[in-house]
Amino acid sequence: MEWNSNRSRTEVFINQFQIRDQNHLAVKKTSNMSSPKKSFTIMFSFILGLLMACSAPSEQGSANQETEKQADPVTSFSGKTELATFAGGCFWCVEAPFEGIDGVLSVVSGYAGGKEKNPTYGEVSSGKTSHRESVQITFDPEVISYSELVDIFWQTFDPTDVGGSFYDRGSQYESAIFFHDAEQKKVAEESKKLLDQSGKFDKPIATPIIKYTNFYEAEEYHQDYYKKKPQDYYSYRTGSGRDAFIKKHWPELSQEEYPAKSKEELKATLTDLQYEVTMEDATEYAFQNEYNGNKEAGIYVCIVSGAPLFSSKDKYESGSGWPSFTKPIDARIIDKPVDKTLGMIRVEVRSKLGNSHLGHVFYDGPEPTGLRYCMNSAAMKFIPKSQMEKEGYGEFIWLVN
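The structure assignment produced for this chain is given below.
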């Protein structure tokens, strides 16, 4: 199924505020208005939001016919595709972490960077070629950015290892980022520099950033190996030391670590607005929310589960009236279903661990991602940098510095 990805842009001025948003429609009523003028302004804003919805309705049906969000994950939203190619040792173990992420269309295990044509697994694994075991990812840049994929890649292997990967030794198991264009090269280099300066590792990052030249798909039995041979796959991960290394150097982002509360508990602990936004997909008013103008260093966590969502370092002023970010801390704990409510087609952003509505993502943001994660303040809690250690988020301080 092809989604209509055309987006219109509307610019209106209300009380000297320029509203350029493709996302939110206010559905939360405000009580105790300070004056009739303020009441009129808010009502006028609401009506304009309804009339000037940013995303064009689908040609496949009218607004009345398409009023529900799709439960299935986003695969191809815009029809655009880009490639990312990574090497991190055993390709089975690099392929699996990218599977199931919204915006990732396919992940293929194979061989990259060598001179030999049509190499086989036996040739590559025995070191008889100049190829590296690699994975190639096809993704939709309007749903997930290359920068987000690089962030995940670093967490799948030991980037300080020279001469192989864990107990797989040889150049065929060395890591690499193969960039496909100048923008990918820039993103990879900046990401590598940030990680090198983070202090997470005792040794410097050894992963080279290399111009992409070729990629050969591996034999079919290697594809989705974690599904075909789960016992062998997980035994290999454990036995090689990969899982122990990842657990030592990266924080756990799981339901066990960040459990979501029941709706009954949330009704007792959240404000009415927070509950309506997170559990009922409501949207707070533009400019009249807690974090739109917040410039303090820190992280924004899910109000429902406490899972870390965004860093202040990736926050920017979009002019929309809602807090906007170029990327999340980890795309693996974000869900992005297609939202077809209100006669529009958009990509919703949800907290996977909180099972809660956060906002929407649009392809009109700044570099390096081109994305604007337009979030509701009411769906998040801000943790100042000075309080992160105390609140249990010390492992994320390097993302704020």
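Interim note for the steering committee: Confidence is low (pLDDT under 50) at residues 1-74. The chain has eleven helices and 20 strands.
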